[in-house]
Amino acid sequence: MTAQKLDDIDRSILKLLEADAKVNIKVISEQLGITKTPVYERIRRLEKEGYIKGYVALLDRPKIANAITVFSFVSLEAQKGKMMDAFAESVQRYPEVVECFVVGGEFDFLLKIIVTDLDAYFTFSKDKIASLPHIGTVKSAFVLNEAKYSTSFPLV
Q1: CA angle 80, 84, 88 (to 5 degrees)
Q2: Pair 96, 114: CB distance under 8 Å
């Protein structure tokens, strides 16, 4: 099944689950005007086919700990496949890196990093990122305020 084959009911179910993964099937069936069994079967199919990758709890980070978010733009010495693969594999083991994107343009990677403070970022960037092989340039932007945060995928 491809994204084009998702019907309106599938999309509605995905929107409801994305807004609240704990919403129960009875509520979904009432909102969509269909019985619980087809809703349950559709959710299981969407999970099986990989449209639903998993369910998570979104944490309120400021309530848990003080932290800063840093976006680091990383360029490698050369854009060779093995170097890029090695870098992507290396950052997987750093819990401070919460997202890693391969990007086009001036840089090769964009990292979203969460650390406790500027000193922690300095230590992280010096001891971990800068110590990786084939690092060319690292430029960082520090988040001052989060104007919008969403995990929602814009389903059409």
Answers
A1: 175
A2: yes
| CB-count burial class (<10 Å; 0-12, 13-18, 19+) for 58 | exposed
Q: Say how far apart CA 72 and CA 55 lie, in whole Å.
A: 28
Long-range pairs for 79-85: beta carbons < 8 A, 24 or more residues apart: 79/108, 83/133, 83/134, 84/108
Backbone angles phi, psi at 140, to 5 degrees: -125, 150
* Alpha-carbon gap, residue 83 to 136, rounded angstroms: 11
Asked whether the predicted pLDDT for residue 2 surpasses 70, the reply is: no
What would the two tokens of residue 26 be? 């009875």
> Closest by alpha carbon to 108, among 136, 133, 143?
136
Q: What is the pTM of this model?
A: 0.83
